[in-house]
Amino acid sequence: MSEILTATAAELARRIATGEQSAEEVTRAHLDRIEAVDPKVNAFLAVDSERALATARQVDAKRSAGEELGPLAGVPIAVKDLLCYQGLPTTAGSRMLEGWVPPYNATVVDRLIAADMVILGKTNLDEFAMGSSTETSAYGPSRNPWDLDRIPGGSGGGSSAAVASFEAPLAIGTDTGGSIRQPASVTGTVGVKPTYGGSSRYGIIAMASSLDQPGPCARTTEDAALLHAVIAGHDPMDATSIQAPVPPVVEAARSGDVAGMKIGIVREFAGDGYAPGVEQRFQESLTLLENAGAELVEVSCPHFVHALATYYLIMPAEVSSNLARYDAMRYGLRVGDDGERSTEEVMRLTRGRGFGSEVKRRIIIGTHALSSGYYDAYYGSAQKVRTLIRQDFDQAFTSVDVLVSPSTPTTAFRIGERIDDPMSMYRADLCTIPANLAGNAAGSFPAGLAPEDGLPVGLQVMAPPMADDRIYRVGAALERAQASAWGAPFTSQIPFLEA
Question: Does the annotation count 179 as an active-site position?
Fold first, then answer.
C-alpha cells in the first residue's frame, strides 16, 4: 500500500480518473494508515470512515458511468477541526465545544464535497487555533513524524502531521499568524495562506476575524495549488470575500519559471535569532533560485520589527470579542446549572472549566486592550502600526515581485520545551505574522534539513494580494532546483513512520 500512500495527490487523481486504481482502494489505504500510525502521531480528533468510503464509492460510480470528474476527485483529505462539517463533531480543540455537531458545512468543506474529494476526518489543533505547537489542544498534542518527541507546529499541527506521516495526501489548515506556514516548515511540507478574502471563512470557528484565512497543506507545490484552486473564490456568505477570479495558481505551479523574477530579501528579518541550520538552508535556497534565473534584491520593511507586538494586541482583542459567544447559554459546555446558581455564576464556571490557560491568557489581554481608557493606547495604536506594515509591503512590491524569509526561526522544538514560556512560543511566528496583518498571500516550502538536527527548514514566500500565483512559481522553481541538485525531490526524504 505504500505506493498509494507516497503518491502525490495529482498522481492519485490521475490513477482514479483512468481507473488504474479505485477511489475506494485509495481511501481504504489511508484509513488503514491512520489506524496504524495515528495512535503515535495524534493527528486526528475524529475519523469519518463510513462516509469517506461512501464518497469514494460514489466517485468510482461516476467514473464508471463516464461522468466528468474534478481534478482531485477521489483524493482523500483531512480537515482542521475548526471547520464545520455537518454530522461530525467540531471541537476547535477545546472542551468548550466537546461533542458539538454542526448542522451545516463551512463553505470550504462544501467545495471539497462538490469537487468529489474524500474527507477522512478532522485534525487536531491548538485550542481555538491559539498556539504554535498543538500543545494547547484539550485532546493532547500532535507529534512530528520526523521525531515523535517534537512538535508538528501550530496551530494546525494535526493537519501538517497528517500530511507528513502519509495519513492524508492533502489537508486544510487555517492561518491567523502563521498556523499553516509554521507547521509546514517544521514538518517538511508545503503550506499556503491565500490572500485574505481569497478563500471563504464562512463556517470556520473564528479566532481573529481580520486575520483568519483557510488554505492548503500538501507535500508538493502542485498538490497545494490544485487544492487552492478547489477551495478559493468568491463566497457571498463571507462579507470579506474578494469578488475576483482566482489567480492562476495551478498553471504557476506547473510552470515554475522564475527567470527575470525579482525576489526581495527583507533586511529586517536578518540578524540573530535564527538557528544556524535555518540560516544555512535559507541562503542555499536563495542560491538555487538565483541559479534558476531569479534576481535577488535586498529590500527594507522598517515596520516589520513591530509586527509581533502589533499582532499580539490586535489578535487577542478580536479573540476576546469572538469568544464572548461561549457563554454556556446557547450551545457547548455548561457547568454548574443546578437551578440554584445565577446565570453569571454558570457562565463563570463554564468558561473557567471549558477554556484552557492559553485561551484565557489571550481573552484577558484582549479584554484589557479594548477596555475604556486603554483602547486608543493599545488596540488603536496597533491598528495604526498595522497600516504602516501594509505600506511597507506596498512599497517593497514596487521594486520586487515577491519577498522571502525563513518561515520560522528554528526547527521543531521538543514537546514541553516552551509550553511555560509564552514569549518564546510567540516568537515562532516572527516571520509569518506580517503577511497576516497586511492580508497578503504567503506560503512555506521545504528548504532542506538543518545539519545540526536533521529536521526540516522552510522558505517563506510572500506576494501582493491576489498575486498568489507568484508564490507557487517560486515554490515550484525551488522544488525543481532541489531535485536537480540533490538527485531526488525533497518528498523522498520524508521519513515513512513505521506502525
Answer: yes
pTM of the model: 0.97
Beta strands (DSSP E) in 386-490 are 402-406, 441-449, 456-463
Q: pLDDT exceeding 90 applies to what percent of the chain? A: 92
CA distance 342 to 338: 10
Choosing from 80, 137, 142, 405, the catalytic residue is: 80
C-beta of residue 378 within 8 angstroms of C-beta of residue 313:
yes
- For the segment 357-386, the average pLDDT, to the nearest whole number, is 94
The residue from 94, 133, 155, 407 that is catalytic is: 155
In the chain, the N- to C-terminal Cα span, in Å, equals: 13
Taking only the tens place, the pLDDT of each residue in 166-199 is: 999 999 999 999 999 999 999 999 999 999 999 9
Our answer to whether residue 424 is catalytic in this structure is no
Write the single-letter amino acid at 120: L
Task: Residue count of the chain, please give it.
Answer: 499
Digit-coded pLDDT (tens) for 400-409 = 999 999 999 9
Residue 479 to residue 473: CA distance in whole angstroms = 10
CB count in 10 Å sphere of residue 151: 31
Q: What is the largest CA-CA distance in the chain?
A: 73
Residue from 137, 179, 200, 405 carrying the catalytic annotation: 179
